[in-house]
Amino acid sequence: MLEINIAQYKTAIRNIPAVIEDQHMLAFDFLEDSFKAAYCFHTTHVDIHDGESAFNDLFLYSFLKTVCKAIVAEIDSCKIDFKPGEATLEAMKCQVKSARIGEDEKYYYKADGLIKLYGMKKLEILLMETSNFFGCKDKSKHSFDHHKGVYGIVVMLKVIAENRNFGTISTFKKIKVFFLHAAGKSLRFEPNGSLYELWLDDSLLIQPEFEEKSEALPKFINFY
């Protein structure tokens, strides 16, 4: 019975209307890619609790790449893309060099993922931190990564200000960089906005079970 439901699930993902107006194609492409990403974690044989890499691969990387793909289809000049893994935060690297601290990598910030505008001087606009494996209850690790992320996005804002130093203060107040924190069984999405106030913009409780797919899919789409 489960195999039949999985087959129906896969068929439904491909069930796109034959006639779609051009202005709706981007939305359909985004939904299809999101459904495929959700299908992968709902049907995986990988132990979802098996380390940070499984957490990232199943619940974050594919969705973040989907978001970038949708944005670049709308605004190609920004060349937005997602860089996974132990990604060096170039904003921090730039500050370390300007402060003449040295070239030692111990001073660099290693993020679990970054979204960068490769068509705009490779400016970084999203920083991702994952606090250990899916379901980890280590509150000290959650707290450490949260404060580390806050520090990182303030540096990202500083570099944006330096690269756009002819902009007005009123324009700068509208700029947002984002911190995506994966901890426990949840994702937290926090934008850093005017006056550097960090607040919770949205959160998502991950529902990895296949039987919960109807409830989980809309939540994942709305979150990302």
Brief write-up:
By secondary structure, the protein is an alpha+beta fold. Helix content is 48%, strand content 20%.
Structural summary, described in words:
The protein has 224 residues and is α+β, with helices and mostly antiparallel strands. It is built from seven helices and six strands. It has helices spanning 2-13, 22-43, 51-74, 90-98, 139-163, 169-172, 213-223, and strands at 80-88, 110-117, 123-131, 177-183, 186-192, 202-205. Strands 1-2-3-4-5-6 form a six-stranded mixed sheet, sandwiched between helices. A hairpin with a 5-residue loop joins β2 and β3. α2 packs across α7 (213-223). It starts with a helix and ends with a helix.
Secondary-structure map:
Blueprint: H1 2-13, H2 22-43, H3 51-74, E1 80-88, H4 90-98, E2 110-117, E3 123-131, H5 139-163, H6 169-172, E4 177-183, E5 186-192, E6 202-205, H7 213-223
Parallel strand pairs: 3-4
Antiparallel strand pairs: 1-2, 2-3, 4-5, 5-6
Helix pairs in contact: 1-2, 2-3, 2-7, 4-5
Q: Which descriptors apply to this entry?
A:
224 residues; alpha+beta
Mean pLDDT: 85
Assign a percent range to the helix content: 40-55%
Distinct helical segment count:
7
Low-confidence stretches: 194-198
Total E-strand runs:
6
Gyration radius from CA atoms, angstroms: 19 Å
Order of helices and strands, N to C?
Answer: HHHEHEEHHEEEH
Structural class assignment: alpha+beta
Estimated share of beta-strand residues:
15-25%
Rounded to the nearest angstrom, the distance between the terminal CA atoms is 31 Å
- Major beta sheet, strand line-up: 1-2-3-4-5-6
Overall shape: it is globular
State the major sheet: 6 strands, mixed
